[in-house]
Amino acid sequence: MASFSGLLAKAQMEVTAAGDGANGISSLMDYVGKGGLDVGDDLVVLLYHIQFACKRIAALVASPFNSALGKHSALTGAASSERDKPKPLDLVANEIILSALRNSGKVSVMASEEDDAPIWVNGDGPFVVVLDPLDGSRNIDASIPTGTIFGIYNRLPELDNQPVEEKALLNSLQSGTKLVAAGYVLYSSATILCASFGSGTHAFTLDHSTGDFILTHPSIRIPPRGQIYSVNDARYFDWPEGLRQYIDTVRQGKGKYPKKYSARYICSLVADFHRTLLYGGIAMNPRDHLRLVYEANPLSFLAEQAGGKGSNGKSRILSIQPVKLHQRLPLFLGSCEDIDELESYGDVQQKVNPGYEV
């Protein structure tokens, strides 16, 4: 495994070779603007506001006072108004991002896990943003990593004459193949923004001394084969036969890769995917649990741009046409050869959930 200093040195060499940055170090804004990618002014403005919102969320997650959010104090009496009650942290994160998207002037629609329906933001905005504002928020009190997941589409101008609710929904239900950009922000020992704009997957680490996201993982390539699987195997006896056979086989070193696989499971989608992206292997939830629009599609886009795959156990995630905003499905992300081997077992999607809620 490469050290952080080694990854930073690699990033410096790549940016220097591109002729960007006096010191051979590139910030996210430089990289997507005048530097390595030149994604266009509108998208640069939008990304500026997204990364600003995520820096606010990072500070909130790390605050010693966040544990009070969403909990009713014993001191609040009957006279307290509803608006005075603290909000759960994921709702606060949702409001922070919505405010940032409004201020950008570049977003027509925002569709979030926290909202029942998409929000029409600005009729002139060229982009549609789908997001999970704070994935894994239930883990915050235990200081387990959390994250923000987002995907960006072009607004569909052919829908402009439709009623607001209809065009907001249809803009949000675009196939993952139409993503313009996608990314996640990992709030952990470091705050890392990993994104793709259709030309590779790149990760930027927040430098708290300057407030900039600095390119530290350029052109990430997920290994074609890993040695780690990530899944809640406490549910082993609820799994279909194909999935049990696959896990039994690879952890005994009897699969197509003749080494025993290790289990690594954080129970935080962004964190489990981030590790898989860097080291290879497979991260999965075989239940109809994760959301296609704002979790599976953006992460599958990142996986593919890094040379990996995103699958529902049978087919490519990005090729699935969403029909509902909060549509759920099984999700398998990781190395190409690992995904191919998993799919070869056939029966890997868990369709029943005995004894617990989805």
Automatic annotation (TrEMBL):
Keyword field contains Transit peptide: no
Keywords: Carbohydrate metabolism, Hydrolase
Positions of the Fructose-1-6-bisphosphatase class 1 C-terminal domain: 222-345
Highest taxon, organism lineage: Eukaryota
SUPFAM superfamilies for the chain: Carbohydrate phosphatase
EC numbers for this chain: 3.1.3.11
InterPro entries, per the entry: FBPase_C_dom (IPR044015), FBPase_class-1 (IPR000146), FBPase_N (IPR033391), FBPtase (IPR028343)
Keyword Metal-binding included in the entry's annotation: no
Domain Fructose-1-6-bisphosphatase class I N-terminal: 41-218
Reactions catalysed, as given in the entry: beta-D-fructose 1,6-bisphosphate + H2O = beta-D-fructose 6-phosphate + phosphate
PANTHER family, alphabetized: FRUCTOSE-1,6-BISPHOSPHATASE-RELATED (PTHR11556), FRUCTOSE-BISPHOSPHATASE (PTHR11556:SF12)
Xref: HAMAP family: FBPase_class1
Family, similarity comment: Belongs to the FBPase class 1 family.
Protein name: fructose-bisphosphatase
